Protein: tRNA (guanine-N(1)-)-methyltransferase
Organism: Paractinoplanes ovalisporus
Amino acid sequence: MRVDIISIFPDYFAPLDLSLIGKARTTGLLDLTVHDLRTWTSDVHRTVDDTPYGGGPGMVMRPEPWGQALDAVGTGTLIVPSPVGRPFTQADAADLAGADHLIFACGRYEGIDQRVIDDAATRMPVREISLGDYVLFGGEVAVIVIMEAITRLLPGVLGNADSLTEESHAAGLLEAPVYTKPASWRSWEVPDVLRSGDHGRIARWRRDQSLLRTAGRRPDMMTAYPFDHLDKADRKT
Ligand code: ADE
C-alpha cells in the first residue's frame, strides 16, 4: 500500500518509524512518505494560512499550496481528518486497508479552504473522518491513529491473524478481560474457569463476559448487535 501524508509538521510522524508500522515500512508492505506542505509555498514566509472570508476567529489554510501538493502526489483515496467528518470505525479501517493508495491531508487552524476538498473530490474519493466528538489541534495525531488501525489489518503485518477476528469491534462486541501469569497477584486470582483446561467452558465464559461488558459499557453496540447472532445461552446472559 502506498501512503502520502501532507502536513506542516512532518516531525509529528516520527512514531511511524517504530514498532509494527516501522517494520511494515522496512519490509515493503507499506510505502509511506511524509511531505511538508510548505514545500508548495512560493513566498519568503512560506505562508499556508490566511484570515477567513466572512470573518470570525482563527485562520484557514490557503488553497494554493494544498492544490499543488495534491497534484504532486497524484490520485488515491484522500482522507481529511476533521471534527466535522464521519466517525471513524473498524469497518472504515477494514475498507481502507484494501486501498492501493491513501493520501492524508492534515488540516491545522480552523481547517482547509473547502474548495480544496471539493476540487479533489472531482478526481478521487474523499473521506472526511472524525476520531470523535472533541477537537484536536490538527489532523496529525488522527492520521497516526487511522494509520495504526489500517496497518494492523494489512496481510502479513500481524504475526497471528486470529487476533484480528477475536478482537473488540471485529465481531460487533467488546472483548472479554484477559489474564496472564502469575495465577495469583496481590491476592487477585485469575478466574478458575480460565485455568480449567475446559475449552467449551472457557469459550462460554468469554462469550458471557463479552456480552456483559458490551451491554454495560456500550449499550449502543448491544442494540445494534443482530438478534439472530445470539444463541440460546447468550440470551440467558
Ligand atoms: N482534527 C481536529 N479534531 C479532530 C477530530 N476530532 N478528529 C479528526 N481530526 C481532527
